[in-house]
Amino acid sequence: MLKLFRILASLALFLLVSSPASAQTPRRGWSVAIAGGPFRIDDLAGTPLVPTAQLLKSGHRTAFGVAATWVNNAGFYTLTALTLDVGLGIRTGGNRAELHALIGPTGILGGDSDGTPYVSAGAHLTVGGTRWISDRVGLTAGGVMRVWLGTANSQIAPSASLGLRFRL
Q1: What digits encode the pLDDT tens for the residues 105-163?
Q2: With b meaning 16 or more CB within 10 Å and e meaning fewer, what string describes 57-78?
Q3: Which CATH class is domain 2-167?
Q4: List of residues 6+ apart from 149 with CB closer than 8 A
Q5: Residue 140: exposed, middle, or buried by beta-carbon count in 10 A (0-12, 13-18, 19+)?
Q6: Contact (Cβ atoms closer than 8 angstroms) between residue 123 and residue 103
């Protein structure tokens, strides 16, 4: 997992320093991202690769985001769950790239193959970046650290993602 975070951090750094062919005017507003990556659940469910969808509202220096992650894992127990992260935070960046950091509540709702419910709430810290490759399309990478209150046997759940972001 640490190796994956290093790879994503290297990719994010590359995206921030390279120059684009377009995307000359900074645009703020709504964007949607479709991404995927590893998501640590707990010791029994493991760390599956999962899809994530994120809606982000970028202001001049502020950001608001909602992210949903679908977990369908066949680890020691088959787990099916949906997580939802809502966050407020900061945004920085220029014409070519932007970074955001969000903090807020998170929740998971689902169950595993033996009937055990996965229902919990907690808090999350999301840090991500987008390198705009055109006026409307960008490559995005990020990481999330969730702290669950009352899950099976792991209270901290990191995840990472890589995908595409589209300006609306």
Answers
A1: 999 899 888 888 888 889 999 999 999 999 999 999 999 999 988 655 557 889 999 99
A2: bbeeeebbbebebebebebebe
A3: mainly beta
A4: 120, 121, 122, 155
A5: buried
A6: yes
The burial class, CB within 10 Å (0-12 / 13-18 / 19+), for 125 is: middle
User: 16 and 131 in contact (C-beta within 8 Å)?
Assistant: yes
- Classified as helix, coil or strand, 21 is coil
What's the whole-model pTM score? 0.79
Tokens at 8, concatenated: 């994503």
Measured CA to CA in angstroms, residue 149 lies from 31, 108, 131, 154 at distances of: 30, 10, 34, 9
Closest CA to 98 of 64, 128, 125: 128
